[in-house]
Amino acid sequence: MKILEDRIRQDGTVLPGNVLKVDNFLNHQIDPQLMDQMGAEFARHFKDAGITKVLTVESSGIAPAVMAGLHLQVPVIFARKHKSLTLQDNLYTAKVYSYTKQVNNDISIDRRFLSPEDRVLIVDDFLANGQAVQGLFDIAATAGITVAGVGVVIEKRFQKGHQMVVDAGVPLVALASIASFADGQVIFAQD
Q1: Contact at 8 Å (CB) between 110 and 87?
Q2: What is Dmax (Cα atoms) for the chain?
Q3: Which H helix or E strand runs over 15?
Q4: Could you give the residue ranges of the DSSP H alpha helices within the chain?
Q5: What is the pLDDT of residue 84?
Q6: Chunked in runs of 10, what are the mean pLDDT values of the chain (191 residues)?
C-alpha cells in the first residue's frame, strides 16, 4: 500500500534492535483517515473469505481492526491483556511475549464472543516474530473457530512471523512489508 509506505518513510524512525517507531500515526497517535484506507484494503482482500468477526490484541491492533470490521460489516473482538472485574471467568487465554515491552502477557477473550461457526480475520499493527498472531491462533484452536486470514499493517519480513503464518496455511496480507533496515532506512520487500 503505497500511501502507507510513504507515511513510514516520512514519519517512521528505526530504533536499535530492529524496532520501527510509527507512533505518530499508528500506535500512539492515530491517523483515522489512514486507518480507514487500511480497513478498506483489508476488506478488499478478504471480502470473499466469509469473515464473521475480526480478532485482534489490545491495544495497537484495535484501530486497524475496527476499520476492517467496519468495512467488512462484522464485529471486532480484542483479546485483553489485563484482567478486570468484568473479565474473570469463562475465558479463552493464551500467553504472548511482547518484544518491544519485554514482557509476557496472558491475553483473554470471553468465550461468549466466539462460536465454532466463526471465521475470523486476525488484524494487528505489526508482524515480526509472530507472538501476538500465534496467541490468537492458539485461542482460535481452543475455541474451534476457523482463522480465514491474517492482515497486518506492517510486517518485518526478515523476522520469523511471516513464515509462521505461511507455514500455518493461513492467507496473509501485509499492507507494508519491510525486507530490512539499512543505515536507519526502511527497505521495503518487492513481491
Answers
A1: yes
A2: 48
A3: strand 13-15
A4: 2-11, 32-46, 62-72, 131-143, 161-167
A5: 64
A6: 97 94 95 98 98 95 97 97 70 86 87 97 96 97 98 97 97 98 92 59
Asked whether the whole model's pTM tops 0.70, one would answer yes
172, β-bridge pairs: 150
Rounded to 5°, angle at Cα 177 from 171 and 179: 125
**Which pLDDT value is given to residue 117?**
97
C-alpha cell at 100: 518491544
CA distance linking residue 187 with residue 166, whole number of Å? 21
Provide the grid cell at 136: 490468537
Query: Alpha-carbon distance 17 to 34, whole Å?
Result: 27
- Among 71, 59, 68, which residue's Cα sits nearest to residue 96? 59
Domains along the chain?
2-79+114-188 (3.40.50.2020)
Nearest partner of 25 among 42, 15, 13, judged by Cα: 13
Nearest-angstrom CA–CA distance, 88 and 191: 44
